[in-house]
Write a structure and sequence with these properties.
Blueprint lengths: L3 E4 L2 E3 L5 E7 L10 E6 L6 E6 L5 E3 L7 E6 L4 E6 L8 E7 L4 E2 L3 E5 L2
Parallel strand pairs: 2-11
Antiparallel strand pairs: 1-3, 3-8, 4-5, 4-9, 5-6, 7-8, 9-10, 9-11
Amino acid sequence: QVQLVESGGGLVEPGESLRLSCTDAVGTIFRGNSMAWYRQVPGKERELVARITRSGYIDYADYVQGRFTISRDNAKNTVYLQMNNLKPEDTAVYYCYGAYTGSWGQGIQVTVSA
């Protein structure tokens, strides 16, 4: 059973925005623990996009710095990834990750194409 549920993906044109959401249906993974977003394209390893710790420390991959914003709503057990100025090279399956249990969401497709 997948406990981390992602939503918000889809097909957009270059320069547009999307906001991904990841909700911990039970709350045990999210609550007070580090969360992250990763992405993967076929034939390549899954790579870190952004992460946010329990204390609010945030870091980003260089290629999304200034375009993507990670945030969390502790009351909703949800972590977000706001993606602005999307580029074709951002096309990937995006995964939510909960560090407490090493759990992954099911993944959600983001496609950026003109």
